[in-house]
Amino acid sequence: xxxxxxxxxxxxxxxxxxxxxxxxxxxxxxxxxxxxxxxxxxxxxxxxxxxxxxxxxxxxxxxxxxxxxxxxxxxxxxxxxxxxxxxxxxxxxxxxxxxxxxxxxxxxxxxxxxxxxxxxxxxxxxxxxxxxxxxxxxxxxxxxxxxxxxxxxxxxxxxxxxxxxxxxxxxxxxxxxxxxxxxxxxxxxxxxxxxxxxxxxxxxxxxxxxxxxxxxxxxxxxxxxxxxxxxxxxxxxxxxxxxxxxxxxxxxxxxxxxxxxxxxxxxxxxxxxxxxxxxxxxxxxxxxxxxxxxxxxxxxxxxxxxxxxxxxxxxxxxxxxxxxxxxxxxxxxxxxxxxxxxxxxxxxxxxxxxxxxxxxxxxxxxxxxxxxxxxxxxxxxxxxxxxxxxxxxxxxxxxxxxxxxxxxxxxxxxxxxxxxxxxxxxxxxxxxxxxxxxxxxxxxxxxxxxxxxxxxxxxxxxxxxxxxxxxxxxxxxxxxxxxxxxxxxxxxxxxxxxxxxxxxxxxxxxxxxxxxxxxxxxxxxxxxxxxxxxxxxxxxxxxxxxxxxxxxxxxxxxxxxxxxxxxxxxxxxxxxxxxxxxxxxxxxxxxxxxxxxxxxxxxxxxxxxxxxxxxxxxxxxxxxxxxxxxxxxxxxxxxxxxxxxxxxxxxxxxxxxxxxxxxxxxxxxxxxxxxxxxxxxxxxxxxxxxxxxxxxxxxxxxxxxxxxxxxxxxxxxxxxxxxxxxxxxxxxxxxxxxxxxxxxxxxxxxxxxxxxxxxxxxxxxxxxxxxxxxxxxxxxxxxxxxxxxxxxxxx
Length: 795
Description:
Blueprint (H helix, E strand, L loop, with lengths): L19 H16 L4 H10 L3 H107 L2 H15 L6 H70 L11 H13 L7 H12 L3 H19 L8 H25 L6 H25 L3 H19 L6 H9 L1 H21 L7 E2 L2 H7 L16 E2 L5 H20 L8 H27 L3 H28 L4 H6 L7 H23 L18 H20 L2 H24 L8 H20 L6 H8 L3 H11 L9 H7 L5 H11 L19 H16 L1
C-alpha cells in the first residue's frame, strides 16, 4: 500500500501592525499549523513569553478555515449516507425475525445441553483426577527407582565395591536428580552425593596408603627372589660352560666328542614364571584406587600423588643406615631397590598409563645415582677384599636381574670396574698374610697322605702328579704341606679375581687376571718364599725340602695359568701361547743356592779332616784319604735321600756345585799355607781321592743322561787336570799352548806354580846340590824345574 500523500503546505494568514519579529513568529506558527507539524515548541515558547493570544488566534483562524472544507465534504457524501440509511431500515425487519429465531434456537439448545454440560463437568473432573494420579504414580515410580539405586549404592559401599557405588551415584545424578519432584529427596541427594564421593575417595586413598606401606616389604622379598633366581641361573650357566669347555678340551685331545648346549631361554622362562607365580606381588589395590580416581575424574591428581609417593619411597630406600654395617645390610638395600623397579615395570606395562616411561626412567636415574654414590663411599672405606667381592657380586646380580626388564646398569658396572685395582690390591694383601701364615706353619717335612681323598685334594686338584697311575696309600709326597696350602691360596685368588672381573660388562678379562696372577706369584709368593729361605731354613733337610717344593711349584704355576684361562673363557692353546717364564725363579734359585750353601758348609766340615793328611809321606793311601771316604759316604747318603724328593735336574745342579766346591777346597788346600811340602805319594793319594769322586759320579748315571754325566765330571775338572799334570812325565808341557788348551784348560798358572814349588824335591834345591853334585838329576824333576822357571818368567 502506498502511504497517503502529505497535505499540501499552505501559507497561513498574516496580521498587520506587528513588528517584524512577531510577524516572523506568526508566520512560523501559521506554517506549522497548516502543515500539521508538532506545535509543542511553539506552545512552550508562547506560554513561556506569556502571550498565548497569538497562538490561540491562529488556531481559531485555522479551525474556521477547515469548517468550510468539512461542509463541502459533507455535502459531497450526503446522498450516499441517505441511501445507506434506507438500506439499513429495509434490513431491520429481517433482523427482528432472525433475532426471534435465534432466541428460540438458544432456548432449545439450553434445554438439550444442560445434561451434557453436567456430564462434561464430571468428565473434566475425572480427567483431572486421572492426570493427578498418573503424575503421582510416575513420581512414586521415579522415587522407587531412586531409592533402589540409593539402596544399591549403600550395599556396594558396605561391601567395598566402590566403583559400582560410584556408578550408582553417577546414574542418580545424571538420570534422576533433575527429574526428582520431591524437594526433600532432591535436597537429600544433592547433599549426600558429594559426601559419598568424598567417602569413597578417602577409603581408596587409605587402601592405597596401606598398599604403599605393604609394597615396600613385598618389593624387598621380590628383589631377593629375583636376585636369587639370577644367581641360580648364573650358577647353571657356569656349570654348563665348564662342561662345554671340558668337552671341547677332550674333543681337542681326540678323547671323545660331546656337545653341551646352554638353555638360556628355558632359564629365562623359569625366571619369569618364578616371579609371575609370586602371590605377594598384588597390584589390585593400586589399580582399584586408580580406577576409582578415574571415575571421580581425578586421574591426573592421582598420577601425581602416586609418583610423588613412590619417589619419596625410593629416596628413603636409597639411604644407608649408619646403625648397621653395610656388609650386613647391602643385600637388603639392593634387593629393596630391585623389587621397587620390578614393581614399577609391571605398573608401566599393565597400569594403563598410571606411570609413563619417562617417569620410570627418571626414578631409575635417581636410583642409579644414589647407588653409585653409596658404592663409591662404601668401597672407599673397605679394607677387606672379600667384603668388596661380596658386594660386587650382589651388585652384578642386581644388574642381571634388572637388565631383564630393560634397565641400563652401565653406570653401576663402571663403578665396579673403577675399583678393580683396589680390590686386587686388597686381595694381594690378604693372600700375602695367608701365605706368610702357611709358610710359617711349615715343618719342612714330606706330606703324608693316608686316604685317596687327601691325594685328590692335595695333588690331583692342582695337577701336581707326575704320573697318571694312582699311588699306593699311605703315600708320602715329595713336597711339604706348604705347597697345597699355597696352591689353595693362589687358586682362591684366581677364582676371586675371575669372579670380580666376570659379569661386569667386560668380556675379555684374562689379561687382567693374568697380570694380577703374575703379581701374586712374582711379588707375594716369591717374596714370601725368599723370606722363608733367608730366615727359617737352617739345615740341609729343610733346604732340600724347600728346593723340592720349588720344583713342585713350577708344575703348579702351569696349572694356575691354565685354571685362570679356563675360568676366563680363554682356550688353553691361546693361554699356553702367551706363557711366560717361571715366576718363582728368584726363590727357586735362592732355594737351590741355600741348599748348595748348606751342603758346602757340611762339606767344609768334612774337609777339615784334610788337615790330617801327611802330605810328605812316601806311602800312597790305597783306599783314599780319610776325608774323602767320609765325603763319599755322606754324598751317597745325600743322594739316596734327595732322590726321593728332588727332581733329577735340581739334584744334578746341587751335586755339581758340591763337587765343584770339593774340587776348589782340595786345590785351595794344596795351594794354601797348610801344606808346606808335597810328596809324589801324597799327589797319588789325591789322585785316588779323585778316582773315588769319579766312581761316585759313575753311580749317578742311572739318574743322568750321558751328557749330564759328562757335565757332572766337569765339576772337579780342575783338580783332575792338576793331578794329571803333576803325575805326568813332562810337566813342562803345561806351557805349551796347544797341549795346555787340550789337556789343562781349567788350570790357573799361579796355582800350578804354587803346587809345583811344594812338590819339588829338596835335593834339587841350591843347598841340596852340594851332596849330589856328581849324580844325574831325575828327568821329571828337571821338567818340573823347567815348568817352575817358565811359570815364574810368565808371572
